[in-house]
From TrEMBL:
Pfam families: LCM. InterPro entries: Ppm1/Ppm2/Tcmp (IPR007213), SAM-dependent_MTases_sf (IPR029063), TcmP-like (IPR016874). Keywords: Methyltransferase, Transferase. This is O-methyltransferase involved in polyketide biosynthesis. The lineage of its organism: Bacteria, Bacillati, Actinomycetota, Actinomycetes, Streptosporangiales. Signal peptide: none annotated. Gene3D superfamilies: Vaccinia Virus protein VP39.
Length: 274
């Protein structure tokens, strides 16, 4: 069978393969952390050569693990606010709506550049992409079509590395100005992670398009807008799923977990409310 042709994407948009392949590789493990079958299906459908991305098994697990945490945050919010708007910013080819399963009263929007939205329409089934929104999240007008009177849960998985600090602060301000109340969660990048990205094979795939300087203090975003309050800094080394990791990775996590400073340098999900 002929593989479906790859969509034509810019280097920035192309970063979506890293996270998609990470989740696909996790899905192939005997005990996946996330079990994202759709990611696996797309990678197979296009015959993507993930070998060229040099994704170590630890990175695949970390990508899947943080996606799972962001899913949980969205799911919990939607259970409390069934009328909410859900937003996945920089969604790539992710089918988070399938995993989160928003109630029918909620509205789930996946946001990415028009070229990525076109690729989603080609590669994802309709139920995996309830409402695609083609936009650059740094554009001041991109939220204009969305209701202003409903609570919102906003997740961004692998996006903030590609925004400058100023763009990130402006985005957060725009979201808080638009919705009456809600939660924002994203995977964090420490200054160390930004530094290390240049030095490991998997990081070199994204380094040319990365802009974020790194964030070491989870309370720093509270200074971006007075309404923004930290709910939790999720240090992944301390999360229960680590118990299912392979022995060597479990050991590394166990050694790191007692130190917040060390854990913070690795896989982190930052969760805020407003
Ligand atoms: C590393 S990928 C992550 C994709 C997806 N969240 C996932 O976990 O598979 C980063 C994504 O952010 C998108 N992106 C980067 N900057 C963006 C912007 N300014 N506006 C909209 N999307 C953006 C890229 O097109 C890409 O799809």
């Amino acid at each position: 069978m002929m593989a479906t042709p790859l969509p034509a994407l810019t280097p920035l948009q192309d970063t979506l393969w890293l996270t998609l392949c990470g989740r696909a590789l996790d899905n192939r493990l005997p005990r996946p952390v996330l079990g994202d079958r759709m990611a696996d299906e797309i990678v197979r459908k296009v015959g993507y050569d993930y070998g060229k991305l040099h994704i170590p098994s630890s990175s695949a697990l970390y990508i899947a693990h943080r996606a799972r945490k962001l899913d949980e945050i969205a799911r919990r919010f939607l259970a409390r606010h069934p009328d909410a708007i859900g937003l996945d910013l920089g969604t790539g080819l992710d089918s988070r709506a399938l995993r989160v399963a928003p109630p029918p009263t909620a509205a789930w929007h996946d946001v990415d550049f028009p070229e990525v939205v076109a690729a989603r329409r080609r590669l994802l089934p309709e139920d995996a992409r309830p409402h695609d929104l083609a936009a650059d999240v740094t554009d001041p007008a991109w939220l204009d079509g969305l209701p202003t009177d409903r609570p919102a849960v906003i997740v961004a998985d692998g996006l903030i590395a590609f925004l400058s600090l100023e763009e990130m602060i402006a985005l957060v301000n725009r979201l808080i100005g638009h919705f009456p109340t809600g939660e924002i969660a994203f995977n964090g990048y420490s200054r160390f992670a930004v530094w290390a990205q240049k030095r490991v094979a998997v990081g070199r795939n994204v380094v040319d398009v990365s802009k974020f300087p790194g964030l070491d203090d989870p309370r720093e975003p509270e200074r971006w807008h007075p309404k923004l309050k930290l709910v939790k800094e999720v240090l992944m080394t301390r999360e229960p799923e680590v118990a299912g990791f392979p022995a060597w990775l479990r050991l590394m996590n166990r050694l790191t977990a007692p130190s917040a400073a060390l854990s913070r340098k690795g896989n982190v999900v930052l969760h805020y409310r407003f």
